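FW: tagging you since you asked about this chain on Friday. Here's the raw sequence from the shared folder, copied in full. Didn't touch anything.
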Amino acid sequence: MPIRKLSMLLINQIAAGEVIERPASVVKELVENSLDAGATRIEVTLEDGGRQLIRISDDGHGIPQDELPLAIEPHATSKLTAAEQLAAIGTLGFRGEALASIASVSRLKITSRATVDGQTHEAGSVIEASGDAVGEVAPWAGAPGTVLEVRDLFFNTPARRKFLRTAPTEFGHINDTLTRIAMVHHKVAFKLKNNDRLTFDIPADQDRAQRCVALLGKGLDDELLEFTHEDLPQRGGGRLWGLAGQPSIARATGKAQYLCVNGRPIKDRNLAHAVKEAYRGLMPMDRFPVAVVFLEIDPHAVDVNVHPAKAEVRFRNPSHVHGLVLSAVRQRLLGSDLTPSASLGGHGSFTGSSFQPASLAPNVSTDAFVDFFKRMDPKEKGFAYQEVRKALAEEDPDAIRPYEAQLITQDQATATQPGSLKSQSVLQVHKSYLVTQDDDGLIIVDQHALHERVMFETLRNRVLGEGKPLESQRLLMPVIVDADAARQSTLEQMQPLLIKIGVELAPIGPDAVAVQAFPSFLFDRGVEPDTFIVDLINKADAGQLDLSNPNAEESALHEVLDMMSCKAAVKAGDKMNEDELSALLAKRHEIDRSSNCPHGRPTTLRLTLKDLEKQFGRT
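HL: got it, structure written out here
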């Protein structure tokens, strides 16, 4: 087949294949044009999820009559005049492909009344285009601004149209796209309708936090931690603002992460990794935080021209940006109490008992209530017992008065009983949980999870803070571990990491390695070197240790220290003496991220006084 020049229609349709993937792509391109035109109000109206109609109305400066035909020409734009500007893009749209591409695969109508140099034209203009047919410019009477109507998307490219999803699915993509744009441009009012149903109507002139909460959901207001951060120019510069969600509201996917660079919503694996890494150890690795991160950076330091739809960017110094985001989010989380609150369930019910202290109903016997507590072992009394007793006394003082003497005797027994909360500040329950109290209520601690976090932070401070490898013990007899060529290659790649954690090993043949030194604290806790090395290799084979990515070196080290801490920490079922209990709880207030173990499970639950009062009918 001879070489030939493509028709303009085919050129535009090929461009549309890169720029216009679905109705949400049309909304993104046209709304960005409205924002570049200085709009303060943007309304999006849809029919059939955007498959039949997309109408974008704005109050921007509009398009003059003589420029309307040029607006739908390929590579025509008012936002770029010289090649030098490509190095520092300051607008959302600049390629000049959007309108031409949309017109080639739909029935496009543009009506606009322009405002130039502060003067609004007396009348507007309208032009229609469909495929390669372009109509004449005609006069139009309407308000200042622009209205773009896109009908029958992909009507002349059936192969593309058949790949469109159902109307609800396409609407979902549009809603997400507009949400991300509206979140960034908090000074602009946005309205979205689908089939005459109003989805959201957001006023103008909100501050950033108000806009984000309005779009994320007002129920999350108390769960979002606001942060700001500014880097020094000599270190690369950059300003950050954002909201970091509490680990307790983490999601199953990353859809609730909103990233923005210089006013442009983006998807960037580097920034997403930084956000996820900041939450390491605060949630399970299969969960994703709710987070909003707005980055302002020198336009010369970021290239937004690497993706046809401008959804991705490339940073000149990705490691600097990664560290900037990681540090800002991590520091905000470190400065917050992330201890989750436990819930007792239904109001006024005390599971397992034969009474309901929330109200002395006729079928509930006061005698049965008192008898229940008289039969309790004094060691089981304490904080909850006192709360129940006060609740009953306030409900019916006369009913409890005959039993006061017996209850006082029980109180005295409780006060002198070893192990009670009267005589010490902490109680070990079922050799697994520690129970104590603070000013806000009852504190329940998982001893293994907390000890694991304590050990992890101790090891991390040693390796990263002090820059020293962990202490190791040379083995009198090297431990032999089976390792074929592939596993030996993995261990060789892990050598810098092994040195930091105090492991020395060397191959002794094609199918084995010899462990010659092992971390002292693991050895003292009875951890077997061969089992540890095999688990380490399996973790690398499962992709949990990314040793090829420089930004992931710290996360790989964290993963290994996490495994070491878990193996060495006190286990559920281990009896701890009074000194050990006190020492462990004291560490809870000294270390970072004590609210969660390195795996992300909570170490501590708080049963608040408010919850207790609700359960005992005192509110």
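FW: Residues 447-465 form the longest helix (19 residues).
HL: agreed, and The chain has four domains: 8-202, 208-334, 337-423, 425-614.
FW: great, closing this out.
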